[in-house]
Amino acid sequence: MENLYTASTYILIFFVYCFIGWVWECAIKSVGERKFVNSGFLTGPWLPIYGCGAYLMLAASYPADGNPALTFIFGGAAAMIMELLTGLTMEKLFAVRYWDYTKYPLNIKGYVCLPVTLLWGAFSVLLVYVIHPPVAELMFGIPAPLSIPLSAVLSALFVVDFVHSTRTALSLKATLEALRSRVDMTGKLTLAAEKLGEKVSLGWESGFGLDALRRESARLSDALAERFNARIPDEERKILGEVSELLSDIKKSNAELRTRLEALKPERKSMMSLLSRSPSAKSREFGDLLQRLRELPDTDEIFRRRGKNKDDDKEEEKKKDK
Length: 322
Fold this sequence. Notes:
The protein is mostly helical. The chain is 76% helix and 1% strand. The chain is built from 10 helices and 2 strands, in the order H-H-H-E-E-H-H-H-H-H-H-H. It has a two-stranded antiparallel sheet with strand order 1-2.
C-alpha cells in the first residue's frame, strides 16, 4: 500500500508539471495569436514534455550537488536532449513538426535552439530550488485514499487523450498524403492537356479540388474522343493513346482519393483542432500542403458538394443515354 501511495504521489507531481507547462505554453501562444490557444499535442490541459522534463531536470541536478551553476548546465542540457529526441520522433511518425525554432539563433534543424535551452536551464534552477520542494510537500500531504484514485483517474484520462491525439495525428498525415495525391493528379492532367493542346483550370474551390479535377478530366475525355474519331496521323494517334492512359489513371486515382477522404471525414474536426493547438506546426515532407489544409472549408461542405457532383454525373449520364 505504501509503494502504491508513493507511486500515485509521483504521478500527481508529474501532472502538476504537465499542467504548469500547459499554462505557460497557452499564455505564450495566446499572446502571439491574440486569442486563447489551447496549446499542445494533446487535447487536455497537460503537456507531457514538461512533466517528463521536470523529472529529467530533477534527476540531472543530483550530480550538481546543490550548485546552481551546474544545475543550470545539467538541467538545460538534459532538457535540450529530450526536446530534440521528442521532436525527431514525432516528425518521423507524423511527418509534422509541432514546434519550430528555425527563426531562433543557433538552432539544430528547428528542433532545439540556444535561447530555449538557456530557458530550460533557468527553469531547472527555479524548479530545483523554488518550485519542487513545496510541490512535493503538498502532493505527499495528500492522503492515500485520495491520491491513489485521483492519480488513477488522471492517468486513465491521459491515456485516452494520448491515444486519441495520436490517432488524429496519423489521420492528419494520411490527409496530407491525400492532398499530395491531388497535386500528382493535377500534374498528370496538365500534361494530358498540353498533349491535346488544351488548357485546364484547376482550383481548390471545392475542398480538395476534386470537383475541378472531375470536370476538367471529363472535358478532356470528350476532346480526346473527338480527336480519335477524326482522321489523324499514326504519330498523333499514339500521343492520344498516352493521353487516354493518363486520363484513365486520373479517374482511378480520383475515385481512390474520394474513398480515402470519406474514411477521414470523422477525424476532420479533431485534425483542425490539433492544428489550432499548434499554430507554428510545419512539415518538411509535405511543404505548404499543411497550410493548404488549414485553409480548406469544413469537411461536411466538401462531401456535400461531392454528393451534389455525384448527382450531376448521373444527370449527365442520362442525357448521354438519350
